[in-house]
Amino acid sequence: MSAGHASVATLPVLHDAPGLLGLSALGFNRAQSVAFLVLLALLLAGPFFLYPVFLMKLLCFALFACAFNLLIGYVGLLSFGHAMFFGMGGYLSAHAAKVWGLSPELAILSGGVVGAALGVVAGWIAIRRQGIYFAMITLALAQMVYFFCLQAPFTGGEDGIQRVPRGALLGLVDLSRDMNLYWVVAGVFLAGFLLISRIVHSPFGQVLTAIRENEPRAISLGYRSDDYKLMAFTLSAMLAGIAGGTKALVFGIATLTDVYWAMSGEVVLMTLVGGLGTVFGPVMGAAVIVTMQNYLAEFGAWVTVIQGCIFVACVLAFRAGIVGELGRFLKVRL
Amino acid sequence: MADSILETDGMTKEFLGFVAVGDVSLKVRRGSIHGLIGPNGAGKTTCFNLLTKFLPPTRGSIRFDGRDITRMKPAEVARLGLVRSFQISAVFPHLSVLENVRVALQRARGNSFDFWRSDQVLRQYDARARELLEDVGLSAYAHLTAGQLPYGRKRALEIATTLALDPVMMLLDEPTAGMTAEDVDRIVALVKRVAEGRTVLMVEHNLKVVEGLCDTITVLTRGRILAEGSYGEVSRNPEVVAAYLGTDPSIAGGSTHG
User: Which domain holds residue A108?
Assistant: First the structure.
């Protein structure tokens, strides 16, 4: 919580140049517009150079981290239980696709719905507390969800839900082909990413910012701050559920790993490494962490140690994260 | 009775047995500027927090504009038109000066839960926000971030933000605290002007300010009301002089006025 505030507070205050190509309508300044176009180009070119399944995994985590950043970066709420939304989203999408036989778009959507529903309940309980207590309550709730997933019959316990069919998009496009699925995942990511940008730059986002900046003052102006926090929490949980659901379809499996507390920690790590409270930081952070996990896999258990070192280095040396520091260097907000 | 807009009856706040505010029955007349004074630790700010519901009272009741607000939440009280300022300057430091005022004006459109709409719709409030900034002499600063403003200007911005809600009653917690003489004069003139057609209750340490502004003064010591009346009456009250005025040399001069 306090770390969040510190990093946001130390961002330089700049007079932003307006965005390019009408991208200011999304709330992007010029630098962000350029970064967005680069991101778009990478999304389009990526699968022709890199393994699509790897990229899809990366995009699922990037969306997850963006959803998490919506809370910590823009409301100042540190959730330490976001795995419950990600993991449950995964379970429900897998169940929907496999048992109910829903089409992939509906399966992913049901992941979002369960994320949002769980978010309303968890948020309603957690936002009554501040700071570290908020984080601890979210962690406790996530552990309860983990236990539920371990015991409930539909999740398959230790085995998880396996052999989830990818199906055909709208009954037309066969998603068992990686390239086809890639475009769907890229579309889901982009939609989520743009939705978050819009939320941040909406009348609602303006109130959220005011609450983050000075909650008692926002209340004294007549804003019921808890309602706004709950709304933000629910939106974040919904997007995390969508990210988890998409990941379940990509790999055809939903397991306990995604509801485990270590996953909640991983998304904190991604957001911090990339740059908390920046638009592109979580994407960058997810890319770095997922890449490390993939290409350092041969080091086995050492991956965790390396990750830990990077985390420590981040906190000590560049607290604003990769994108945050880059923005500071270039004197722009990214 | 009918002409008092804010009324408390036996309002008490205890913290673990310590009585911060004890049995305070206060009546603020509609349209007046009412001062709340007292030595440090007298319970003035606690009173403010009770009146604006940032703290729940242990006992007693609070009525605002004929309505019992004792159990209401702070945001609800603000929506009824009872709006407070804070002792430390309460601005949104990373928002621009214009946006600070606009966030308050935005209340007019309801809850603003619309996360799918562009914040361009808030441009409709820019003109009114500029007027309010003009009113408090901050036009030239509209595009700075609020955190960059000097202290006195922040207080002015806070008043502009409060005014944006067009409150029925304003509660100002030490509006001139820590200000230079020049800033004090500006704020006094401002409060006087904006109090037209409203009720103001202010905590203030600067007795010159109190004398110049307030119609009625309530003196609080150790959480209880010691005296009430006009500045002249209160400053002649021997108990007040002993408990409060006499302890502060700068005030001895003030009391000779009366």
Answer: 26-330
Q: How many CB atoms lie within 10 A of CB B25?
A: 12
Residue A14 in any domain: the answer is no
What is the count of structural domains for chain B? 2
User: Chain A residue closest to B148 (CA)?
Assistant: A13
Domain harbouring A225, CATH code:
1.10.3470
The pTM score is: 0.85
Decide if A22 touches B, using CB distance below 8 A: no
The domain containing residue B141 runs over which residues?
92-148
pLDDT averaged per 10 residues in sequence order, chain A, 334 residues: 38 53 75 89 89 93 96 90 94 91 90 95 91 90 92 82 82 80 94 93 92 92 93 96 94 88 90 89 92 81 80 81 86 80
The closest of A120, A306, A82 to A227, measured between CA atoms, is A120
Query: CB pairs below 8 Å between A and B: how many?
Result: 109
- CA B48 to chain CA mean position, Å: 8
* CATH code (residue B189): 3.40.50.300
Report if residue A142 sits inside a domain: yes
Do the domain assignments include residue B63?
yes
Contact list, A227 vs chain B (CB under 8 Å): 111, 113
Total domain count for chain A?
A: 1
CA nearest neighbour of B251 among B46, B38, B35: B38
* Closest by Cβ to B78, choosing from A209, A220, A227: A220
A199, A70 contact by CB (below 8 A): yes
Is there a single domain that holds both residue B232 and residue B142? no
